[in-house]
Give the backbone structure.
Amino acid sequence: EYVVKFAWPSDKRHREGDLLKLAKERGVKGIAEWFNHEQVAIDGSRDTIASLRKGMKFGPPRKLSVKASWVDNGMESSRANSRTRSSFRGRSRSSVGRLTGLGITTSSTSISSGRKRKRDERFAPETGAIKRSRSDDSQVVAANAEPDVKENELENFNIHSIKEPEADSLAGCESETYGNRIHCCLVVSLAGRPLHTYRSVRELLEALRDAIAGHRSLLGDGKILHRDVSENNIIITKSAVKGAPKGRLIDLDLAKELDSIPSGASHRTGTMQFMAIKVLQGKGHTYRHDLESFFYVFIWMCVRYGHEDVVGREESTAPPKTSILRGWYTGTYAEIANIKRGHMVGFEDVTAEFAPEFSGLRGLAEELRNVLFRSQDLAPFTGTYKDRNIMYDGMANAFNKAISHLGRE
């Protein structure tokens, strides 16, 4: 089975296809497997936004009133417009027919149209996977950014941050006002199911555990950091052979090869409710922040889903009409970071909202929180260990322990 993905990435970003191909060559396991990729050509010409704008003249961009509540009033505002990164809506069928060199026939593929599943309105009015386009006016932030820990803590905790001295940004460049995007086609395997279609608690936990293992391989073997872990970027896969991953990490649109130069794109897009605290504060991105995002995905699943078909699949309960997790995606970046930090201290308020189906996973949630934030500290630890095995092994052991305690479902 193959999946075909059409997308319009910025020409300033690393190509997802290039990174997936590199990951395959380096023996990465547990992620989507590269088959082929190339830029789409229409009637012999490469399909780009620049080509669509050819011959058009643009005046200076209109300045919107700062009084509008949704206008981005600085890098910390989370009320920026979202963008769809993977879509071929509006393309004629003949456009798809002109794709060449992919090496497969359309009859053996499933086309990814970029359509998002309808969000569950019962949970809260705005609890879908909310993509935010984050404006990185971060040259100033990078200059003033504090390290993850103070200097006198280095000897005790052996902290290491992935080398990314400046956030990707073209802020202030006039050319970025009308930035160019290129139409790309990527073919990968294997196809899988969305995380929310889990068929049992065991399947959900195994998928999350194996996706984390895939992230570990991507970082260790592939030397690539994902940087966009979310509910929609983890899929459940069939295990064709014993020991094969039951969950895989997909979507390397925002990934970055370690020690490479900044990509130069002026916006970062992530899923707000899964962003790590330090990322929300504008700090450099490390493997720890992706693991923190996996943790938030787990919490999100336990609160949002599991309210139906509980107790013999006969009784059902409704999820809360409102949730404290609403604070994970509303407000400014600084406000959301502060809310998440507070939740890691008063964590029992979060686990109290677990759905009936996941009530038995509160202990796992506590263990995962302790691995990432250290329970003995009054203030949650948000730094990055130089020895990455501490957090990877800690999370893997916690998931394996919880899975072993589950009865046969």
